[in-house]
Amino acid sequence: MPATHRGVTLVRRIVTLLTDFGTSDGYVGQMKGAILQRSGDCQLVDITHEIPPQNVGLAARALGSSWKHFPVGTVHLAVVDPGVGTDRDILAATVAGHFFVAPNNGLLSAIIEARPADEADRRIISVDVDRFFDSPTSNTFHGRDIMGPVAGMLAAGVPIAQLGEPFTGQLIELPSLVVGVDAEGVRTEVAAIDHFGNCSLATTFEFESWFATKRRVRAQLPSSTESVYLEVCRTYGQQPAGANVLLTGSQGEIEIAVVNGNAAEKFQLSVGDSVTLA
Q1: For 72, 163, 228, 268, which has the most beta carbons within 10 A of its beta carbon?
Q2: Which architecture, in CATH terms, is 4-166?
């Protein structure tokens, strides 16, 4: 006989986890335990726990590039929460058939606002913490004590409307990355650096259109007074090992890479660095 909650038949869902906790402590395990207490047979999938501490921007990017690869009905829990313990809202949202749980600090704004406000299944709830969490909660670990349990309840099939009231406040938005395109070229910035040292650049439609006409690009980087030349290619194997290249990476953004090498180390690039291409 399937389990029920307030007359609702509970179901088994996937729950994805994205945090800045790292894996050297017990934090991830504790949060998973809190989820499993509410949904013992859900499937937990780690997107990453290696977001740099308190870096909401990179967390939002990682979530934004990952959630669509999961089945409809998946619950996505994102906890990068510099404001933990303050009066900021904790949100539960449904967008395009997926569920999201995160603090209102910019983690979800791009995902939510990319969908029409009148979309039938787009709902945003401000979680009623006092109603669902009577026992003392840590002032510094809402991922374990509030958001994890909320994700577990959603994974068990508890209707999102039962978790609180409709959110009527202001969604916190993250600052836009700087991209400029004109006759002289492109001014952009390093938006993310992956495990391989590939440097994703802030990318717009205008940047993509400019890039599509190029075979070789001259780059001005912060670490050098001299220009660096980048070969435009479709994939790394089109150029020999050690070549400096510019291509569209797997996340859909234009990136600086070194074939079989590490562009971030070679060019001493960091997230936020300005890059000029011509």
Answers
A1: 163
A2: 3-Layer(aba) Sandwich (3.40)
